[in-house]
Design a protein that fits this description.
Elements: H1 2-13, H2 15-87
Length: 88
């Protein structure tokens, strides 16, 4: 126990050891900040991907609806033209 106190007291009095410990603390804090930033960035990218997929699905659905409307309009137009030909 006495040896441990001697070692820690030497550490407390050594300015280089204090600087090194501070540097290690700063590195650990920076690594933690980067880790949190990266995880938030990944979550944001995931949300964007989901939103993009939903937008693409909505556009496909709208395109299908428009294609159906065009087809129905074309059929009705053809039927109307045929009806007009029969009447003349």
């Amino acid at each position: 126990m006495k040896e441990e106190k001697d070692i820690t007291s030497q550490f407390d009095n050594d300015p280089l050891a204090k600087l090194k410990a501070r540097e290690l603390d700063l590195r650990a804090a920076e690594n933690q900040r980067r880790k949190e930033y990266d995880s938030k960035r990944i979550e944001l990218d995931r949300m964007r991907a989901v939103m993009n997929q939903q937008n693409q699905d909505n556009k496909l659905e709208q395109n299908e609806e428009l294609a159906e409307m065009r087809a129905e309009t074309s059929i009705e137009k053809t039927l109307l033209q045929n009806a007009l030909k029969k009447d003349t």
